[in-house]
Amino acid sequence: MISGTGGGKLEVLEPEELIRIYAASGKVFAVTGKGEYTLRLQLYELEERLSPHQFVRISNSEIIHLKKVVNFNLSFAGTIYVKLSNGTVTYVSRRYVSKIKKILGI
User: Fold this and answer.
1) Which of 15, 23, 45, 90 could form a disulfide with 61 if both were Cys (CB 3.0 to 4.6 A apart)?
2) Which of 16, 23, 21 is nearest to 1 (CA)?
3) What would be the CATH architecture of the domain defined by 2-104?
4) HSE (CB half, 13 Å, CA atoms) of 49?
């Protein structure tokens, strides 16, 4: 179970609802179809709690839900950009490219 604060309310967030989790400005945020929530847990703690079959870390500051990925775009420069179901575009850091390719079977 993961709880997050959004709109002045503390809400329980179901893993299926999560699109991405990211760290910025010293805080951790979760994005769902309903909005953005501030979390009290650190990314490494969330990574331990979430299913490794559904969630993958793509950088030191971001975890994505694989079922919410619209597409992966592998560029010639070796980077991978990810388009998520809410329209967000994010990038896989170089350190995590081989991990993502293994998951995708490339």
Assistant:
1) 23
2) 16
3) Beta Barrel (2.40)
4) 14
